[in-house]
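#onboarding

Welcome to the new folks! Below is a worked example of what a typical request in this channel looks like: someone posts a single protein sequence, and someone else replies with the predicted structure as tokens. Don't worry about understanding the tokens yet, we'll cover that in week two.

Example request:
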Amino acid sequence: MNSCKNLPAQRLAAEAMRRVAARLRPGLSEARIARMAEEEMLSLGAEGWWYHGVAALVLAGPRRSLVSVSGREYSPREDILLGRDDLVTIDLSPVLNGAWGDYARTIYLENGRPLLEPEAPARPEFAEGYAMQLRLHRELAEWAAPDTKYEEVWQRMNALLQREGWQNLDLHGNLGHSIESDPAKRIYLERGSAAALGGYGRPFTFEPHICRTGGSWGFKREQIYVFDQSGRLVPLE
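Example response:
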């Protein structure tokens, strides 16, 4: 699995996320967090940003974390500040050795302190969002196979969300996409996508952006996945 060309970029993104998460404090703005993330990725060797030139898409706090926006229209806000009990979603898009990383996490602050995985949030609204994200990723890994269709992932995961009282917030309704060299060639985990997830070493992302139906907090967790030589789905990390 280490032969996947996207592995170094994904490891860079994961390390940058850990560093930024550890530095989060109340009073930091979305724009400041986005700059911190860009600085960390550059320090780790990032060559650029594949997602419309956006290094880090940052959305903080209630309501704002519900927003789903294309990188074409996104701009981090200077006036949106982290509170003592708050959350922020950070979505990183580095390029390294010409290959993409694609990595998002919702980071939680409780009593002014950032929670670093595997520490789970205690606040009930945060705890259930964190648990549902882990469940979605776990269930995908349990049943997905190389011949599973993109649309099947979309159908099964949206059905699960609906049964459990959650909704998919993505502006296009998708749950992830293939990893390519050209962003325009991505195919999506969406209705009508008949492509198979693929075979050994072919990567794709799973990135459900969700909230409790009618809720105020949005949650996102993105991971690149590949199938190993035995046909088992594993995270690229």
